[in-house]
Amino acid sequence: MRAKTRNSRSKAVAAAPRSKNSGPKSRAKREGISVEFLYLTDNAKALEAYPGEMLLIQGYHLLAHSSDYQEIERIIQQKKIDCPFIYRVPRPEEINFV
Amino acid sequence: MAFQVTYDFRMPYQVLPFLGGQPAVDVQRGLGSRKTQTVGILDSGSVLTVFDEDVARRLGIENLADGRPIRGISLGGPVELYLFDVELSVLANGQIMRFPAQVGFRPGYQSRNILGRNLIFAYFQVGIREREQQVYLQPEE
Questions:
Q1: Tell me, what CATH number does B120's domain have?
Q2: Which of B8, B18, B29 to mutate to test the interface with A (most CBs of A within 10 A)?
Q3: What residues make up the domain containing B90?
Q4: Which of A14, A45, B8, B90 has the greatest number of CB atoms lying within 10 Å of its CB?
Q5: Which chain A residues are within 8 Å of B91, Cβ to Cβ?
Q6: ipTM
Q7: pTM of the entire structure?
């Protein structure tokens, strides 16, 4: 019984590299989107905390949020980001567009 | 008379803050050496592709009035737009598709960046299956 448990454990260890494939980069690749876009969609609900603000996302991280574009641009320059992913969260009153 | 359309690409709607599932794609725009990336929503009801003013600033466009001014009409009323030629890439289904694009920049902010019929719809047959929350694309020959 114990041996079986040990076997199960070692199986779990052997399976560890597979969990690497469930990281954001692998998931983004699988879904055919950028890691930044994946972060945005994965965290859509939480990011509603920033209505009307611009989000600067780099990799699977929110680097900055601000309603002032200059502030976002300052961080882009500071971090030397070549192709920044910027998304403006709409305000609740802007969402039912026609 | 029945028609049959085959699509090479299929992608799910993406969930965006406050907007929920949308036919949204990852868009990269470039002007000279400046590039920026954001999200655009496919909109077959829009003749033009329209982005926010801050996207223009990120591309190094200091003055929107340097573009070709046109007046657009939305249900919210008339909007002033300034057209610029930019290089646009769309990442969908793991494929990067590049287009030369004429984009209208709008002073101020709008609730979403619009990919209108002059862009993706001009290069792809587009199918939208709202109930399944899926977008289908087939490159035009």
A1: 2.40.70.10
A2: B18
A3: 9-139
A4: B90
A5: 32-34, 37
A6: 0.85
A7: 0.83
